[in-house]
């Protein structure tokens, strides 16, 4: 990247918005250019060029998460057609590691954001609840590669897990009570006391450059 | 008008004399040694001088950068994120452990399992192993070629002059010299092999064929100013064997064939390549395939087996990766050549990118552009290691054998050993790979599912 003044303005803005360091932003910018083929925006098709991603069973959900308006903080539902570098960084910022100098409030906020990202991954129709159907859908995707598991088994696994979630959130249900789905608050309740922040981050290599001159 | 005439003839005379001198020098210092396989050591001296100059240039750039208080080196090439080497099972166990107080062995699905896949997905989006291998390696010091310079702003006046001098030498002196040599080498090859083809079959023909081939390849090596160091020459391939090597560029063929006598395998091309191929096959049996035959794997395997079983025929030279890789890693070896059952002689080739990057990025440069780039670099410096021969063991399948050979080559050459297919340069991942992770995960979930009673 050139060292012109205007670029560092933008970079500074991005640093304050997303919390990445300017070095990390530079590298991610390089990666963005590589993925987008030197265009200004990325579309869904550009993610098809990553061979390692093909191995991932929930790759379509991950890619979708990049274009999800809720994650981009643009709208309460719907999908964007293409994202620019700032949007790319916004999504990446959900996976930033926890900094040691964060106070309680920042930590709580960070955690909530990460969990919200996951919630959006499950809740594909953006109605604010993870219904049984949506849950089943995720389980099926995760297990889809195994030919020995029939759809029925996948469903029953999902049903069982859903029931457990329900019991945590609502307690014992009456026989005629219908459980509508896991809301975000219920989702938070499930994860209370569980340390997920350390599992939901990507660690950047220490980018201190080699000592230049002797 | 009068003044021009003697002037003209003077110029013509000078031209004539200089050409003769040049030609004699060429003959004495380059072609004659090539014929006899000896070397004056001129290239090694050249290499040492260049190294000294590069070191000086790098120092100047560092000084320049320090004055401006900027960063010069950016260690990107090994990736920008730290990927956890833990496996799927370990991670999911850990996530569940930190969560519920349920027994660890109950195989069931948890909301948290999605974390692992989500994170892995993100990591690959940020940085993946494969796409890196298909672009040229970045250098840490500058070798006075503008094509490898990423830090233009740190060049002082002195460096610019040096660089300009370098351009002059490379384009006006080295390039014509190299083109002349290449031309000589190729035409000698065509003419020589055709002539040898007229000889009656016998020991004399073989002797002549071998030496014509070697001589022409040696001239070509000098045409590229390739400085090659061969290691462990006692392991060189013998008749009835298959020689496999990692592939970085079409020059690999010239490098290996100038030190040994091989039978080539490949597709018949049209044009100049075709002429060369047809001439070569007159002198000794190479294995050329028509375009239509290449698709038929059985036919290919049959012809190769036939060749290999005839002990009088030469060792076959094959590049199992199937495409050019940028010489920082070795990618998947196609199993075809390992199914034949002959002794495999692995060879590792490692180029030193300081003098000229030999990697052929076929999506970026055509063949002619590539050759021009090669001929305007300083030199091609590489090391060749002949590894001890390997054979397929009794209950080993071809894929496993191929991977074993690949690891040996990667280890010797100091390259990264990757399982990925070089074909990914142009195609997408095969479905069979995609399903591996899903199978593993689902085994974990369903494993003892039969025992579990549902409420």
From TrEMBL, chain A:
Recorded superkingdom: Eukaryota
GO cellular component: cytoplasm; lamellipodium; nucleus; ruffle membrane
Gene Ontology molecular-function annotations: calcium ion binding; protein kinase inhibitor activity
InterPro entries xrefs: CHP3, EF-hand-dom_pair, EF_Hand_1_Ca_BS, EF_hand_dom
Bilayer topology term: Lipid-anchor
Annotated Pfam families: EF-hand_6
A biological process from GO: cell differentiation
Domain spans labelled EF-hand: 110-145
Record keywords: Calcium, Cell membrane, Cell projection, Cytoplasm, Differentiation, Lipoprotein, Membrane, Metal-binding, Myristate, Nucleus, Protein kinase inhibitor
Gene3D superfamilies, alphabetized: EF-hand
Homology family: Belongs to the calcineurin regulatory subunit family. CHP subfamily.
Quaternary structure, from the entry: Monomer. Homodimer; disulfide-linked. Interacts with SLC9A1/NHE1; the interaction enables an optimal Na(+)/H(+) exchange activity.
Name of protein: Calcineurin B homologous protein 3
Protein species of origin: Sarcophilus harrisii
Automatic annotation (TrEMBL), chain B:
GO cellular component term, pick one: endoplasmic reticulum
Record field: transmembrane: 12-42, 155-173, 179-200
Pathway it works in: Lipid metabolism; Phospholipid metabolism
GO terms under biological process: acyl-CoA metabolic process; diacylglycerol metabolic process; fatty acid metabolic process; glandular epithelial cell maturation; lactation; phosphatidylcholine biosynthetic process; regulation of multicellular organism growth; triglyceride biosynthetic process
Primary location recorded for the protein, binned into one broad class: membrane
SUPFAM superfamilies on file: Glycerol-3-phosphate (1)-acyltransferase (SSF69593)
SMART domains: PlsC
Family: Belongs to the 1-acyl-sn-glycerol-3-phosphate acyltransferase family.
Protein name per Swiss-Prot or TrEMBL: Glycerol-3-phosphate acyltransferase 4
Organism of derivation: Sarcophilus harrisii (Tasmanian devil)
Gene name of the encoded protein: GPAT4
């Amino acid at each position: 990247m050139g060292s012109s003044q205007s670029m560092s303005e933008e970079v500074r803005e991005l640093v304050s918005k997303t919390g990445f360091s300017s070095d990390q932003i530079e590298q991610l910018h390089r990666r963005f250019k590589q993925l987008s083929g030197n265009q200004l925006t990325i579309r869904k098709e550009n993610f098809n060029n990553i061979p390692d991603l093909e191995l991932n069973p929930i790759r379509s959900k991950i890619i979708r998460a990049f274009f999800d308006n809720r994650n981009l903080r643009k709208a309460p539902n719907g999908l964007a057609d293409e994202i620019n570098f700032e949007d790319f960084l916004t999504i990446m910022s959900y996976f930033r590691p926890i900094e040691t100098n964060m106070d309680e409030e920042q930590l709580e906020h960070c955690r909530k954001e990460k969990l919200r990202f996951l919630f959006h991954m499950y809740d594909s129709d953006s109605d604010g609840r993870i219904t049984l159907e949506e849950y089943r859908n995720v389980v099926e995707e995760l297990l889809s590669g195994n030919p020995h598991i029939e759809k029925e088994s996948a469903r029953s696994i999902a049903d069982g897990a859903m029931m457990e979630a329900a019991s945590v959130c609502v307690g014992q249900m009456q026989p005629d009570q219908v459980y509508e789905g896991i809301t975000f608050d219920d989702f938070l309740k499930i994860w209370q006391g569980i340390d997920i922040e350390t599992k939901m981050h990507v660690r950047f290599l220490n980018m201190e450059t080699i000592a230049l001159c002797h | 008008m009068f003044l021009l005439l003697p002037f003209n003839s003077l110029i013509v005379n000078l031209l004539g004399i200089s050409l003769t001198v040049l030609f004699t020098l060429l003959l004495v210092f380059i072609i004659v040694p090539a014929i006899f396989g000896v070397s004056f050591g001129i290239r090694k001296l050249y290499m040492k001088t260049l190294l000294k100059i590069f070191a000086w240039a790098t120092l100047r750039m560092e000084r320049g950068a320090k004055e401006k208080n900027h960063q010069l080196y950016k260690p990107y090439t090994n990736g920008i994120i730290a990927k956890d080497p833990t496996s799927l099972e370990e991670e999911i166990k850990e996530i569940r452990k930190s969560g519920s107080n349920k027994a660890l062995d109950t195989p069931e699905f948890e909301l948290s399992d999605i974390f692992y896949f989500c994170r892995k997905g993100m990591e690959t989006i940020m940085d993946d192993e494969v796409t890196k291998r298909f672009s040229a390696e970045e250098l840490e010091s500058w070798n006075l070629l503008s094509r490898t310079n990423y830090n233009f702003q740190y060049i002082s006046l002195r460096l610019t002059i040096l660089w300009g001098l370098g351009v002059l030498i490379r384009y006006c002196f080295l390039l014509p010299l190299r083109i002349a040599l290449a031309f000589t080498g190729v035409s000698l090859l065509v003419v020589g092999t055709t002539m040898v083809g007229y000889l009656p079959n016998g020991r004399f023909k073989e002797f002549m064929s071998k030496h014509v081939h070697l001589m022409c390849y040696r001239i070509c090596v000098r045409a590229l100013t390739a400085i090659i160091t061969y290691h462990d020459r006692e392991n060189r391939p013998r008749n009835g064997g298959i020689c496999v090597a990692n592939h970085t560029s079409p020059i690999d063929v010239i490098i290996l064939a100038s030190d040994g006598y091989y039978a080539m395998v490949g597709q018949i091309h049209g044009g100049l390549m075709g002429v060369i191929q047809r001439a070569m096959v007159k002198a000794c049996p190479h294995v050329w395939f028509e375009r239509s035959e290449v698709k038929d794997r059985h036919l290919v395997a049959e012809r190769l087996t036939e060749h290999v079983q005839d002990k009088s025929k030469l060792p076959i030279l094959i590049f199992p990766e199937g495409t050019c890789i940028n010489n920082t890693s070795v990618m998947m070896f196609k199993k075809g050549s390992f199914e034949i059952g002959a002794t495999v002689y692995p060879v590792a080739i490692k180029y030193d990118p300081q003098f000229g990057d030999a990697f052929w990025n076929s999506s970026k440069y055509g063949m002619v552009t590539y050759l021009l780039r090669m001929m305007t670099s300083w030199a091609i410096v590489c090391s060749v290691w002949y590894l001890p021969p390997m054979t397929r063991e009794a209950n080993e399948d071809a894929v496993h054998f191929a991977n074993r050979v690949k690891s040996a080559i990667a280890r010797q050459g100091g390259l990264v050993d990757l399982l990925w297919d070089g074909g990914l340069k142009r195609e997408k991942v095969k479905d069979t790979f995609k399903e591996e992770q899903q199978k593993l995960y689902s085994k974990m979930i369903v494993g003892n599912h039969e025992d579990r009673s549902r409420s």
